[in-house]
Design a protein that fits this description.
two-stranded antiparallel sheet, 2 domains, single chain, 8 helices, 63% helix
Length: 125
């Protein structure tokens, strides 16, 4: 009896509509481990498992953005930081929901992210 690889599971669960980034996520899990991949993404192993199994009920677009930033060197032009990785952009947008005045960079990014078109579009949806 052979165990199903993460890529086989993703293809079985997603079918012909398996997004390229989900297949890439599965390949990364095969190259190391699901928990190591999750740690690099700053997500839980169960979230990665749910994405591969096509049962994740959360925002897949955000998971895709973080995946592309970490594993594909995807970038965005940040008005404050310049060209930055997608996962770093996601990190700062998430942190910008609350002001933490203890750190000057947090204050700077709070202000910048609140005005950023990427954050405004996300809030509108």
């Amino acid at each position: 009896m052979s165990l199903e690889t993460p890529l086989e599971r993703a293809r079985r669960c997603w079918g012909e509509t398996t997004p390229d980034w989900v297949a890439g996520l599965a390949r990364e899990c095969m190259a190391s481990s699901q928990n190591k991949v999750a740690k690099r993404l700053r997500y839980s192993g169960s979230l990665v498992s749910a994405v591969l199994s096509n049962t994740y009920a959360g925002d897949l677009a955000r998971v895709e953005e973080v995946y592309r930033g970490v594993f594909e060197a995807g970038t965005v032009d940040c008005p404050q930081l310049g060209e930055t990785a997608l996962n770093i952009c996601h990190h700062w947008r998430k942190k910008s929901r609350r002001l933490n005045p203890a750190n000057a960079q947090n204050v700077m990014m709070f202000r910048a992210c609140r005005r950023c078109p990427r954050n405004i579009e996300e809030d509108a949806s």
